[in-house]
Amino acid sequence: MIAITGANGNLGQATIQFLLQKVLPTEIIAIVRNPEKLTNSHIKNVKIRKADYNNQQELEEALKRVTTLLQISTTSTGETGKRQEKNVVLAAKAMGVKRIVYTSSLTPKSNAHFLATHQAMATEEEIRKSGLDYTFLRNSLYMEVIPALIGNAMETKEIRYPSGDGRVSFVSRLDIAEAIANILTGSEHDNQIYEITGDTAYSFTELAQLISIEKKCIKINHTDISEKVFREELISYQIPVDVADLLVSMANGIKSGEFSYVDRALEKLLDRKPLALAEYIKSL
Ligand SMILES: NC(=O)c1ccc[n+]([C@@H]2O[C@H](COP(=O)([O-])OP(=O)(O)OC[C@H]3O[C@@H](n4cnc5c(N)ncnc54)[C@H](OP(=O)(O)O)[C@@H]3O)[C@@H](O)[C@H]2O)c1
């Protein structure tokens, strides 16, 4: 049996759709914290088990008879996020899960600016300590976050973002989901670490140029605002302080090159070229 945490999220839902092309719905367990909120019809076809990352007993119940677990990283941050992810690893170990496939952060290092990287490093360490087989997908930023990153730039013709000349190897979340389905059903991925990126890294100035080219009717520029102004703007949009902190840390991470690494692992996992950023932008 293959179980998936965060199954009702974007990556979880997409992975289940790819998995259903490879295994029977009865072999898939979608672990969600709010079964009553499920709307996706594909997920409704697979087995649903309820577990909140904060509830060890629910997690253990949900992992009964599971051999392979896709542990999708949590949306919580800081110590809460670390504890939630550790709960999942401990439950997997306790219930005899054989392999964990975990969605981690690109090229993690202990002095990373991006706060989520520290959580990912702690969870990788917990998984290693558990002695279970593992596969880590160290994901770069999703292309699908670009609309949120650029805000209303299509109207204002300006991307206001404090990333300096830092580049991002944006990657399609759908491509990641397809690669995960291949890993979950493949046999040669035990104890492997994959850096999951697009095929090119772009600075925000280059991103603005690409949007200008692909969306022929607009000319967009990048303005490298200060971290202070960025934070003030986030707070003015009623974004909670912990989320603002995470977003500021992400911008600082981009600025210092934490998302610029480019790797061919995704192309090999998909056995085709990953989606190019220009193609994604055309679809916006
Ligand atoms: N690489 C990137 O660019 C990027 C961008 C955003 C996020 N991420 C990370 O990648 C993960 C997957 O991305 P995504 O787009 O699928 O995110 P998403 O759509 O926000 O899905 C996250 C899932 O986590 C579940 N979840 C959160 N807290 C939980 C808890 N306490 N107990 C049980 N489930 C919980 C949510 O459940 P509900 O449906 O009940 O809310 C949701 O289904 C995210 O969780 C985040 O860690 C990466």
From TrEMBL:
The NmrA-like domain, residue ranges: 2-280
Pfam families registered for this protein in UniProt: NmrA (PF05368)
Domain of life: Bacteria
Protein name: NAD(P)-dependent oxidoreductase
